[in-house]
Every structure is written in structure tokens, then in C-alpha cells.
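Morning. Coffee machine broken again, so started the prediction first thing and wrote up yesterday's gels while waiting. Chain of 551 residues, entered below exactly as on the submission form.
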Amino acid sequence: MSGSLRVLIVGGYGTFGARLVALLATEPGLTLIVAGRSLARATAACERHASTDATLIPAMFDRDADAAAQLAAWRPDILVDASGPFQAYGTAPYRVIEACIAAGVHYLDLADGSDFVTGVRAFDEAARAAGLFVLSGVSSCPALTAAAVRRLSAGFIRIDTIHGGIAPSPFAEIGENVVRAIATHAGKPVALRRNGPAWSLTDHLSFTIAPPGHAPMRCRWFSLVDVPDLTVLPGLWPEVKTVWFGVGMALGISHRLLTGFAWLVRLGAIAGLSPLVPLMRFTMRHVRWGEHRGGMFVAIEGIDSSGRIAKRSWHLVADGDDGPFVPAMGVAAVIRRVISGQPPSPGARAAARDLDLDDYEPWFRQRAIHTGIRDDSTLYRRILGAAWDELPAEIRAMHDGVLSATGRASVERGNGLLAPLAAAIVGFPRATPDTPVSVRFDADRDTETWTRTFGGESFSSRQSAGRIVGRSREHFGPLTFTMTLQPQGERLLLVQRGWRIFGIPLPMWLCPRSNAYESVVEGRLHFHVEIGHPLTGMIVRYCGWLTPDPD
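Came back before lunch.
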């Protein structure tokens, strides 16, 4: 392509099209044709950019009209469809793609519908014959998610699961087409790669988005949505057993109401949520509170080069109004590649192999967007995040995939009537000045079960990550204690923050008191655990040292 590159952006004044124009307006050598059904709105969108390096031209373009004639009038090199909703393009959803191939125009879109994105492959032969690239889903899904999975899986032998999610800011402007897309697939079956069926917005998980070195977002509840990743990513990684992607709204009440309606659709009580689109959009625009930040995550689990289970996650947090720029950055990155003489190869396909995180990162740096990767292979790595590196090597070694450890310990028990009873309920060992001790660590996907054996007496607890970064939960039967893991010099403190019985939170003044920490003495990990209560005094205190056993 020689001379000025002409890019026709259909939906150029919409939620994502306008942001794409803002990203590309600083690129010299571009002519951006900002188009839509309303010439007045297109003109106003161009006038908002008083000073640009690119040339901006307002235009009318109706994708339902004669696309061939409109392309002939504007003669673009690339057409970008940023309008949508792609799930509602009717009986001839690919009319614009067909017109582009006939006119010799490259094509990009921000489609988020699985059927639409995967269906683009039908035009691969025609696009190759014409020497054109036709890329669908050049958005957060699947272009950015696939790029994140490639970065995360470096050094993996196999990927078993891929989970991801988008958490928009409650103050982000969400266009009608996005809301309509959510309503269209709510409660409908989803082609999910796992055992058993799934339905949109009725399958959930919780996750905390927390880029290393940046303040984490609040834990969000994510609900499954139908995105191209569910069908595209298994084509890239055929061994994957589960691919899951969800949306996490900031307003929990609204989110749960939406999932409730999705259940009504799933059960056949109502046909769909399309009639609720005006109400949904009104609620999203006018019922807002919470932190003005949005985010995204991609997490994988598999087997690393050493043959062990490995987990990694990629995190993105966008402050303020910068979140809605992320879906448009993939198209901006492709166009920058074209300008630099590195266009995508010809063919029609989902844009899952055409961009890497390196293509996105210059655009992230232009905005208040923070990203990073966490090694979640073991529980304490996942909980501590960046603080993991502050721990002494001996403490890191004990919590980094060790299967068992042995050492020596002493145990003291409290006096009185209640202390022995409380110790017996949990299973704490009897008092002894010196005894062999061993700990077995049994890990599954989200938890670790610690079985401690003092002499011939054993008791166990189950540990998991808390909802807040840096916090853990330890479960003793019906009792759950929440603690902050806090590195402090040569120690790792376990600071108590809350407790529950059968899941019911109780006041801290009723809580047993704990003084617990790990430290390093003469090159070995030492532990100190003291548990008591104002009504009983000391219940138990056990101290000692451990060294990891050979695998």
C-alpha cells in the first residue's frame, strides 16, 4: 500500500469506533473515514478532534444498504466494522465482507459473537485469491486473550484449562449494541469445552484482578458469556479440556438480577431478554457506584517443562475511562503493522494468531492501563503476588510445590477446663517437650490440605486464597479463619483478620487469638503457632523447624 492509507470505520462514532478513531488520530499518513448512518453524528465526532496527525473525513455508511456502491464511493484500503451487534446481523451477516473481497478492500472487525467469528472462515479461499486479509474478532476476544495465553504458556508442555473474564467499570459507557448482545445470548446454551452442558450467565466463578505492583480490583463474580474464545482457542490448543470466559459486573445486585433472568430463559419461562434492553441500558447508565476501574484476566493451568502442575495468570487494570479503549487496540495494532510494512497474511479467519502482547503494550502505555503476569503455580505464590519475592528463600522453598517436610517440634497445652476441650475438638497434639513432626501438603486446583503429624498424632486443615489479595483462609471443619500473609524481614506473619462458623461471619471480639509466623534460623524454616482465647487463656502452642523432603 502506497501513499496515505485510507481506513473506513463503520460505527466510527460508537462506543468502540470513537475510541479507535482517538487511538489512530495521532498516526501520520492515515485518512480515517468516520462513518455511520448519521452524517451529523459522524461530523460531530470528527470535529471533536481539533488537532490530529491523521486526516478525518465524516461519511454516511449503512451496512444494510448497497455496500458495494458505498465502497466504490469512498475507496478505502481497509474497512473496520465497529458497529454490531454481530449476533443480530440477520440472514446475510457477511454482506460487508463479501463486498470488501469483491472490491479488493481488507477487512477487520470487533465482533464478539462466536458464530459470526468462526463463520468468517468460509471466505478464506476467496480472500487468499484476492490477496486480502479478512480478520474477525480483532478485539479483547479472541485477539487479546489468545495473545495472553501464548505469553502465559511459554515453557508449558500442555495446557489443561483456560479461564478469562472482563470486569467493566460501573462508570464505563456501554453502548446499546453491547447490551443487546448480552441480552441476546443470556440463558442460551454455550458451546463450552468441558464435561457437561453450560448456559450463558448461569455458570460462575470469583476472581481478583491484581496486576503485580498495582492496586488490585475488588474481587468480582464472573458469569459465563458466549464469546469466540470458547470455540477459537480449542483450535489453537487442542489438548485444552476447559475454556471458560465470563463478565464480572461491579454492581452485585444488578449482576444477580441479570443472572436470575438468564435462569428464567434457560428454564423456558421467558423467551429472551431482548425486551429488557432499554431497562438494562438505563440501569447501567444511571445506577453507578464503586471504583472507577475496569479489568481483564486470563488464567491457564497445565504442565510445565519439569512435569509439574503449573498455573499462571495475566492481569489488566484500566483506571478511569480508559477501559473501553482496550477492545479497539487490537485493530489499532493491526493498522500500525500495515503502516510499518508488516500486514497480516492473506486469508479469512478469527484474529487469534495475528497479534502478540508486544503489539498491545505500546498502546497500553499511552493510557492508564496496567498489566502483569502472576505465577499462580502454588497457593502462597497466588496469595502473595509480588510480595512473594520479599520472602526468604527457605520460606519460599517450603511453599513452592513441596510435597512433604519433616523436622522436630515442641508442644504446650493450656490448663483449665475449656482449653483441653477446644484443643481436642480441633485435634491439636498433646504436650511434649520434643517430638518428630512432619507435614504433608496435598494440593488441588484452588486449595492445599496440610496434614500435620506430631509423633503419632495428626490433625489437618485446608487452606485457600481469600477474596482480598494477600489474604488466606484456613478451614478447620466448620471453622474458617481469614489471615493476611505479611512478609516482615526474615519472617512471614499470619495476621488474623476474621472468622466464620458454617460460613457465618462472627465478631472479632469472640474470635480465638492467634500469634503465628514462619522465620528462618540457621538456614532452616522455623514455625511458631500460639492459639488462645480470652475465656480459656492459651489453648495450644507448638514451635519447631522443618526441612523439605526429597520428592
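The chain has three domains: 5-139+325-364, 141-322+369-376, 383-548. Going to sketch it on the whiteboard this afternoon.
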